[in-house]
Amino acid sequence: MDMFVVQGGRPLRGRVAVSGAKNAALPIMAAALATDGPTTLHGVPDLVDVRTMAALLQTLGVAVERAEDGSLQLEVVDKRPAIAEYELVRRMRASVCVLGPLLGRRGRAAVSLPGGCNIGHRPIDLHLRGLEALGADIRIERGYVVARANRLKGASLYLGGACGSTVTGTCNVMAAAVFAKGTTTIEAAACEPEVEDLGRYLNAMGARISGLGTPTLRIDGVDRLEGTTHTVIPDRIEAATLMIAAAMTRGEVTLDNVRLDHMTAVVRKLEEIGVKLQPQPEGAVHIDGTGPLRPADCIALPYPAIPTDVQAQLTALLTQAEGISVVTDKVFPDRFMHVSEMARMGARVRREGQSAIIAGGEPLSGASVMASDLRASAALVLAALAARGESVVRRIYHLDRGYERFEERLRMLGADIRRVVDTPANVPASLHPLSATAPESEAA
C-alpha cells in the first residue's frame, strides 16, 4: 500500500490541465452496453475506477481498449453475459450503472449490490423504483439485483429522494428508458452536468431525450442505438480541488480545460472567501490565492449548489481563513471523517450533526493522517501542502480512484510530494515522537 509524503509550505505556481470527469465517464462507459457498433470516448481519465468499470464491462461482453491517443474504444462483442459479479461491483458504487443499459438492451440483468466510498448510507431504492415503473420485474436475491423485462414500457415516474435527486439513479433509468416502448417522463431528475453529458452521448447514438439539464426529462423510446464518438466533459470536482490547492498554498495557478459554467456556486463561494479567479480564452482560468482568506458558511446541496464532493476541500480551505466558518453537507450528512484527521494537523474544527464548525486562521502543522474516502484524501493532501513541516497521508488508494496522476501534476506546480510504500522506514523522522527535528510544540 502506498502513501504520500508531503513537505508543506510551498506556494503552487504554474499551469496544468484538468482531466475528463470521472463521474461522467463511468455511466457513459456503462451505457456502451446498449450500443450496436463501436464507440470512441475521448477525455476518459486513466483512473482505478475507470479500470474497474472497464474490467466489469469486459465480463459483460464488451471489448475495451485504450488507444495510443488516449481515447477509449468500446464495442459489444458478446450479448450473452448479463451478470455483474460482486468481486468487481463491490469496489465502486458507479458499477450499478450497468443495470439500466443491460435491462433495456438485453431484457435481463443480475447486478451485485454496489460498494464504494464509506460516506454514509446510499441506497439504490430509487433506481429500482424507476425501473419497476417501466415494467421491470425486480428481486433481490443473495445480494444481487435480478431484473427482467420482455420490453420496457414508457411511464411517468419520480426520482426525488430525502436528500434530493439521485444522480446514478437518473443515469440508470435514463439508459433503460431509451428502449422503452412509448414515452417516459422523469420528474425530479438530477440536473448535474455529468447526467447531461450521458444524455448527450445517448442522443448521439440515436436516443431521443429532451430536457437535459432540467428536472424533467422526456424520453421517446427507440429500437436500437448505434456507436458514436464522444468527448467527456472536464471534471468540475478536480478543477475545484486544484483551485483550492492554489488558495491554500497562497499560490497562483492557471488551469486549462475548465467549464466554469458547471461550477458557478463553487466559483462564487471561492470569490467570497477571497480567492481571485480570472477566466481566460479557450477554457482556461487563472487562480490567484495570494490574498487574505475570509470565513464563510457553505452548504453542500444537489446541483447547481456546492457539490458534496467539494465539501471536504472547502473545509480544509476554511481552516486557513481567520474567523468562524460553518460547512454543512445536506447530501451526505455523515461525510465528515476528515475532520478528526485535520484536527491532528492543528485545525480547530469540530463536527456538530451535519456540519463542521471551523475556527480558522491558525497555521497547520505536519502530521500523519489517514484518508477515509476519495474526497477526504484530496482534502488531507491540500492540508498537507499548506502545513508547516512534513506530513504523511495514508490510504491514498482512495485518491487514485478519482484523480489521475495527482502527485505528478502537483509536482508540476511546484509541490514537494512523493509517493512511497507505506512502511515505518518511509515515515519522515520529523514525525516520530520526541524527534529532534520535530517542531518544539510537537516535541514538548
Structure description:
The chain contains 15 helices and 28 strands. By secondary structure, the protein is an alpha/beta fold. It has 2 domains: 2-19 and 234-443, UDP-n-acetylglucosamine1-carboxyvinyl-transferase, Chain, CATH 3.65.10; 22-231, UDP-n-acetylglucosamine1-carboxyvinyl-transferase, Chain, CATH 3.65.10. The longest helix has 13 residues, at 236-248. The model is unreliable at 116-121 and 440-444 (pLDDT under 50). It has a 4-stranded mixed sheet, covered by helices on one side. The active site is at residue 117. It is found in: Cytoplasm.
Annotation, overall tally of beta strands: 28
The number of domains: 2
CATH homolog superfamily of the largest domain: Enolpyruvate transferase domain
Architecture (CATH level 2) name of the largest domain:
Alpha-beta prism
Modified residues (2-(S-cysteinyl)pyruvic acid O-phosphothioketal): 117
Protein name: UDP-N-acetylglucosamine 1-carboxyvinyltransferase
Organism: Maioricimonas rarisocia
Pathway: Cell wall biogenesis; peptidoglycan biosynthesis
Map the helices and strands.
Elements: E1 2-7, E2 13-17, H1 22-31, E3 35-36, E4 39-42, H2 48-59, E5 62-66, E6 72-76, E7 83-84, H3 86-89, H4 99-106, E8 108-112, H5 125-133, E9 137-141, E10 144-148, E11 156-158, E12 160-161, E13 164-165, H6 167-177, E14 183-187, H7 193-204, E15 208-210, E16 217-220, E17 225-226, E18 229-231, H8 236-248, E19 252-256, H9 264-273, E20 276-280, E21 284-288, E22 297-300, H10 311-318, E23 323-329, H11 338-344, E24 349-352, E25 355-360, E26 368-370, H12 374-386, E27 390-394, H13 397-400, H14 406-412, E28 416-421, H15 440-443
Pathway: Cell wall biogenesis; peptidoglycan biosynthesis
Protein name: UDP-N-acetylglucosamine 1-carboxyvinyltransferase
Keywords: Cell cycle, Cell division, Cell shape, Cell wall biogenesis/degradation, Cytoplasm, Peptidoglycan synthesis, Pyruvate, Transferase
